[in-house]
Amino acid sequence: MTSYVYSAVRTRFGKFNGALAGIRPDDLTATVMKALLEAHPGLDPARIDDIVWGNANGAGEENRNVGRMGALLAGLPTSVAGTTVNRLCGSSLDAVIIGSRAIESGDADVILTGGVESMTRAPWVLPKPDRAFPARDVTAVSTTLGWRLVNKNMPKEWTVSLGEANEQLQAEFGISRERQDEFAARSHALAQQAWEEGFYDDLVCEVPEVELERDESIRPGSTPEKLAALKPAFRPDGSITAGNASPLNDGASAVMLGSEQAADLLGAQPLARIAGRAAHALDPHRFGFAPVEAANKALERAGIDWGQVGAVELNEAFAVQSLACVDAWGIDPEIVNAKGGAISIGHPLGASGGRLIGTLAKRMKTEGVRWGVAGICIGVGQGLAVVLENEEGKN
Q1: Which residues are catalytic?
Q2: Which of 64, 238, 296, 377 is deepest in the core (most CB within 10 A)?
Q3: Backbone region of residue 385 per phi and psi (left: phi > 0; alpha: psi in -120 to 50; beta: other values)
């Protein structure tokens, strides 16, 4: 059996405390699920074999299994099952990987995948006391981003902040502040251009009662010179700033997967074949570099090499780690994130993988590219990658 991407949709991504701040993550999930079903009006929703949904938090309004909760809110038949997976930043890309494997094993014909994150609405949590009624203060911990309630047995070098981890990566590879700011400015310019040219028009859906023209974190007019004026965020003498790292965001994405036979059920032809996938892990504080081997493994499993790849969507967690990956692959930087990336578009953790797949599949169709790669780095030292094939494209 073979698995295919048939369609994809996402919300516009809102910035922290921005336009989507008032929308619960389960409602964002329901919104993109409904939009994806509208793209397949002939599909009987009861024919969806499973829902696999990504989410990095799960501690609040997601109710732990937001995939199932969102499906119920979207009005899908209660017979349609749903699960939620958590591989942090890679959660919705993991959902695509899991769904594609189910199809290729013959267990399913149609699987609805995707992911959601409201970083604005992520709750504070309190640890339970080790005895009843302790006479001391308890500190609430934010679940928005990064390590929380760290186990004392974890080595200290593993549990540094995400920013400090990438400052270490900068020192390891000698990637200058200038290169990082140039990369970030390019992300904003390309995202702005893509929106103006209408590239994203059929990849996004409206969120009820929200007025948002485009992804809220895009800053038109960003230049390397303007970004150079920002102060380092993690070290007094560091290179990483709020301008060359991804922001905190809210949003959701959805991807419809199916077998070759599912074309009749879905009333559509596939956009791309899922040709390879892989995970890779290394020391937790080196997570930004993990997509390198994940993508190399995925390409090997697809039976191709980097010389045949014409489009890459790499999640821009930080400019420095993105540049380190592109350098390691030895590819033309111009094929990477040609419609902008997470530094400008945003990075709502559980939704980013679905965005990458949707953008990559459309790029491959519009550019006539046969082979493409989606990759993402993941906190605690992991990376994921998926290889897509546009069977009508050229090498």
Answers
A1: 89, 347, 377
A2: 377
A3: beta
